[in-house]
Design brief:
The structure holds 2 protein chains of 2 kinds. Chain A is mainly α. Chain A contains 12 helices and no strands. Chain A has a domain of 168 residues: MetI-like fold. By secondary structure, chain B is mostly helical. In chain B, the strands form 2 sheets. Chain B has a two-stranded antiparallel ribbon. In chain B, strands 3-4 form a two-stranded antiparallel ribbon. Classes of the chains: A mainly alpha, B mainly alpha.
């Protein structure tokens, strides 16, 4: 009797362990299936863009999932100016606008972020709220007066007409991303530097700036990306000579007026996207920290 | 590395919790705040001045413009008129969908004119906002839950979600336009023959699907950051207490991730309310996919002052939604701290 019970008991325990093992196995299988679904959902459209970019024009709508009819022609077509596209110039414009906006925003914003992260003063939360609100500001609310102003002073289609409005959303983004990075830095070092006889300004320049470099670099990437992606303001205030890539790609025309030159557009899209994707993947951890910094802290 | 995602106190910007780097309270605190205040105002001045120029100035001039008549040909006399003060007429025209009538006064805008599209555009904007934010929240939450687990290849998944985010919206729109083409991959894949951008509902869903693809990763990353702030011990303790997976989700994950989730939803909602690039390129605003932003842009070349009135209305709508959200958020933060007994206020 006793022995039977103990075997039964052991059998029961065994099956229990087995059940929990199977359950764990199933859970991990489900995780991998879900992960695969996320991967496909996120990457398939981007993959399709790249595959199409390398396809011959005659096979634009080919549906084989791997590269077929591979050619580099589309990249040449993308830079071709004979159909009124100025993609090469647009790339240069985007770089000029993006770099200027990023540098200006960082130079101005780094001081504000330092004050917001480090100093105690009245109206601090009012200022933070104002800056956060500014970053959520709708671009259309700015465009009408700027359109009129720039028309009146002859700035339409100039670089400054594209750079100044971009600062309105890149600067707030810069300030609050830097603020949350700065809050997490080892500020005791600043105190030590001041004990050793540095002024607050010296402590900032000699001790804090080198430490803050990675944070500033990450913020620069985020600032550059958001300026690079801007479309609304550029679509209204630029002309053929100053238009950035987003506007160039949106209005890409081909040889036939009624036919959208998809393969060339996908090639242009690939050129615009690949550097960003590489940059983002290399600095993945920092970028994610910077992206989420404003939201969770 | 301090800047990596890791456990840190969850703070909502809306709640304004004053617990960041307070020096020790005591004698001299007032003096310190005064001297720091002087420093702070110097450091903040460039940013405040810059934002004043690029944001406050345009807003104020938009409001002033919105109370002016548009210069143009008078439909009654055929002569050029210079505008002049309009009172609230521009606002009345938009909200009542009234257009200037020949011979003075106003009549209901004929269909097809911009003036007659205000309420449809408002409806479309809110429709897009609600559907995309709900889809992105649900999908983003699911993605975040998966990415929070430990498994081989987790780094790959976390990197992959950044790809749609990094692609410029203009490129995204062209890419989806290509995939939604009649001969495109989506129709082939589902063996369908839908003219996606040719009629109202397919066009709307094309915009929604493309937007969801592009911005769900951002949502997932924000929620993931919130999830990672929940200490693992809480889950272990609840497992010991015999809580089921559903109970753990409902009673631990959801309430603890709520502040981060609400902020993510607020960001996305405000972003969706100003949606422009995607429908503008994907459908050109045809088939009732014109959002308020597109309507403003279409109006600009027909009359600055009227466009300024519309952009001010758009701004007020977004401001109102943000205000409701922040009040709602604030209320929840208070409620939460009260419930756990850890509230500092």
């Amino acid at each position: 009797m006793t022995s039977v019970t103990s075997t039964e008991l052991r059998a029961q325990q065994d099956s229990g362990r087995k059940a929990s093992q199977t359950r764990e196995k199933w859970a991990s299988v489900r995780t991998y299936i879900s992960a695969a679904v996320i991967l496909i959902w996120c990457l398939a459209p981007a993959y399709w863009m790249v595959v199409t970019a390398f396809r011959e024009v005659g096979f634009t709508y080919d549906t084989s999932p791997w590269p077929t009819h591979v050619t580099m022609d589309n990249f040449i077509t993308a830079f071709d100016t004979s159909f009124g596209n100025r993609f090469g110039q647009a790339l240069l414009n985007s770089v000029i606008i993006g770099v200027t906006v990023t540098v200006v925003s960082l130079v101005i914003g780094v001081f504000a972020a330092y004050a917001l992260a480090r100093l105690n003063f009245r109206f601090k939360y009012l200022v933070l709220g104002f800056i956060l609100g500014a970053s959520m500001f709708p671009g259309v609310a700015l465009i009408t007066p700027l359109f009129q102003l720039f028309t009146n002073i002859g700035w339409m289609g100039t670089y400054q007409a594209l750079i100044i409005p971009n600062i309105s959303f890149v600067l707030p983004l810069t300030v609050y991303t830097l603020t949350s990075f700065f809050r997490e830095m080892p500020w005791e070092l600043e105190e030590s530097a001041r004990v050793d006889g540095c002024t607050q300004g010296q402590a900032f320049r000699k001790v804090i700036m080198p430490l803050a470099a990675p944070a500033i670099f990450t913020t620069a990437i985020l600032a550059f990306i958001s300026s690079w992606n801007e479309f609304l303001i550029a679509s209204q205030l630029s002309n053929d000579a100053t238009q950035p890539v987003t506007v160039a790609i949106a209005s890409f025309s081909g040889a036939q007026p009624n036919q959208i030159p998809y393969t060339a557009i996908m090639a242009a899209g690939t050129i615009v996207t690949i550097p960003l994707v590489i940059l983002v993947l290399v600095f993945q951890r920092k970028i994610v920290a910077g992206l989420t910094a404003g939201a969770v802290k | 590395m301090a800047t990596e995602l890791g456990p840190a106190p969850v703070k909502s910007p809306a709640s304004g919790t004053p617990e960041v780097h307070h020096g020790p309270k005591g004698v001299g605190e007032d003096n310190r705040i005064l001297s720091q205040g002087k420093w702070a105002s110097w450091l903040l001045a460039p940013t405040i001045v810059a934002l004043g120029i690029v944001i406050v100035y345009p807003i104020v001039s938009a409001i002033i413009m919105s109370f002016q008549k548009d210069a143009g040909l008078d439909p009654a006399t055929g002569l050029f008129t210079a505008g002049g003060p309009a009172g609230i007429q521009n606002y009345v025209n938009w909200l009542g969908q009234q257009c200037a009538a020949p011979g003075g006064g106003t009549v209901a805008c004929p269909p097809g004119t911009l003036g007659g599209q205000f309420w449809t555009a408002t409806g479309t904007t809110f429709f897009f906002t609600v559907i995309t934010v709900v889809l992105e929240t649900v999908l983003g939450f699911w993605m975040a839950m998966i990415m929070a687990r430990t498994f081989k290849g987790r780094g790959l998944v976390r990197a992959a979600v950044l790809v749609p985010w990094a692609i410029p919206t203009a490129v995204t729109a062209q890419l989806w336009l290509f995939m939604f083409d009649f001969n495109g991959i989506i129709n082939k894949l589902f063996n369908a023959s839908i003219l996606w951008t040719g009629s109202e509902w397919p066009a709307k869903w094309a915009v929604i699907i493309a937007d969801t693809w592009k911005t769900t990763p951002f949502m997932a990353l924000l929620i993931l950051a919130g999830l990672q702030m929940i200490p693992a011990e809480v889950y272990e303790a609840s497992k010991v207490d015999g809580a089921s997976a559903w109970q753990r989700f409902r009673l631990i994950t959801l309430p603890l991730v709520k502040p981060a989730l609400m902020v993510a939803i607020l960001f996305r909602t405000l972003d969706a309310l100003r949606m422009f690039d995607l429908p503008y390129i994907l459908t050109g605003g045809a088939n009732n996919t014109t959002t308020l932003s597109i309507l403003v842009i279409n109006q600009i070349r027909q009359g600055f002052n009227s466009a300024a009135a519309l952009s001010t209305i758009t701004f007020l709508i977004i401001f109102l939604v943000a205000f409701i959200f922040v009040r709602f958020l604030g209320a929840n933060v208070v409620e939460q701290s009260g419930a756990t007994g850890k509230g500092k206020k």
